[in-house]
């Protein structure tokens, strides 16, 4: 049996593969940037282990996660896993998860569009180029948090037109100090800003202002990230719930740039299973 995990700050999708049989388990997120080794081990013990019928049958664990971006951090995750599964353990970033899921073992450009965003050029084995995401304040173009940030900045300055501004104030009862507190001192500012994205997107078809904001967010991702790769040479794929929900808009915005997205999927786990089973 091998275990594959795709983890974010909110949840972790686990796939337990035994031959051609697969069982899926969902636990809370395991992000080493925010959680200690002990906290991650507790999650494994209480939420994953009960689903593993035979621990001794596990041969390897492949963990892909947000926050897994350095050797020291990845070793922390590996130690938490090894306390229950003393087997081969590989810990990789969520960007590698996107690359392997979208490209498997072929060269291509892999994009993440979730609450945040990222992208890379994958040569079939390694990430060979990465235009840095820079986070929701300095980057994350094309992500849900950035859309929320753009909208909120306009709302606080009185630039969101009516009736959208009034509807937003009614539905969320936001005030200046609450917003500032959540964005500058909150525990999860990116998640907070991203939480407004679904509400904003509901008005895409009816409000010219919202339509412009949404399309500019994706346009910025294309111009500031994707255009730095050789988009004429490699296929471009997208993984992430935000990108998948807006796949028609993304395709529309990308068309004038000559970009044709090969694949847009909501989550990487299915492609990771394909990768680790050695399929193409």
Q: How would you portray this structure in words?
A:
With 280 residues, the protein is an alpha/beta fold. It contains 13 helices and 10 strands. Strand 7 and strand 8 (127-129) form a beta hairpin. The two termini are 20 Å apart. The model has no long low-confidence stretch (mean pLDDT 90).
Concise overview:
With about 280 residues, this protein is of the alpha/beta class. The chain contains 13 helices and 10 strands.
Layout of strands and helices, then pairs:
Layout (H helix, E strand, L loop, with lengths): L1 E6 L3 E8 L2 E8 L8 H12 L11 E6 L5 H12 L5 E6 H10 L4 E6 L3 E6 L4 E3 L5 H4 L5 H13 L7 H9 L3 H9 L4 H6 L2 H5 L6 H17 L11 E4 L1 H5 L1 H8 L6 E5 L3 H8 L4
Parallel strand pairs: 1-4, 4-5, 6-9, 9-10
Antiparallel strand pairs: 1-2, 2-3, 6-7, 7-8
Helix pairs in contact: 1-2, 3-13, 5-10, 10-12
Features:
280 residues, alpha/beta, 13 helices, 10 strands, globular
Counted by DSSP, the helix tally is 13
Helix- and strand-based class?
alpha/beta
Overall mean pLDDT: 90
Output the strand order for the largest sheet.
3-2-1-4-5
Order of helices and strands: EEEHEHEHEEEHHHHHHHEHHEH
**Distance separating the two termini:** 20 Å
Spans of at least 5 consecutive residues with low confidence: none
Number of strands: 10
> Biggest sheet, open or closed, and with what strands and sense?
5 strands, mixed
């Amino acid at each position: 049996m091998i275990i594959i995990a795709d983890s974010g700050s909110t949840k972790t999708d686990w796939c337990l593969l035994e031959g051609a049989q697969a069982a899926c388990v969902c636990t809370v997120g395991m992000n080493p940037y925010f959680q200690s080794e002990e906290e991650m081990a507790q999650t494994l013990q209480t939420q994953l282990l009960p689903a593993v019928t035979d621990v001794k049958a596990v041969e390897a664990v492949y963990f892909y996660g947000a926050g897994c971006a350095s050797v020291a951090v990845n070793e922390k995750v590996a130690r938490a896993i090894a306390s229950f599964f003393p087997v081969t353990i590989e810990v990789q970033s969520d960007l590698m998860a996107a690359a392997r899921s979208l490209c498997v073992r072929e060269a291509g450009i892999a994009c993440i569009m979730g609450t945040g965003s990222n992208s890379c050029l994958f040569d079939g084995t390694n990430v060979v180029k990465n235009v840095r995401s820079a986070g929701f304040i300095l980057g994350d173009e094309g992500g849900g948090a950035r859309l929320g940030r753009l909208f909120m900045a306009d709302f606080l300055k009185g630039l969101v037109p009516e009736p959208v501004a009034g509807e937003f104030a009614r539905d969320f009862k936001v005030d200046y100090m609450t917003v500032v507190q959540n964005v500058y001192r909150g525990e999860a500012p990116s998640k907070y800003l991203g939480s407004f994205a679904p509400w904003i997107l509901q008005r895409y078809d009816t409000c010219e202002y919202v339509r412009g904001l949404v399309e500019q967010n994706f346009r910025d991702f294309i111009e500031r990230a994707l255009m730095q790769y050789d988009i004429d040479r490699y296929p471009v794929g997208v993984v992430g719930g935000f990108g998948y929900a807006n796949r028609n808009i993304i395709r529309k915005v990308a068309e004038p740039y000559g970009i044709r997205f090969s694949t847009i999927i909501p989550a990487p786990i299915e492609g990771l299973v394909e990768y680790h089973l050695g399929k193409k």
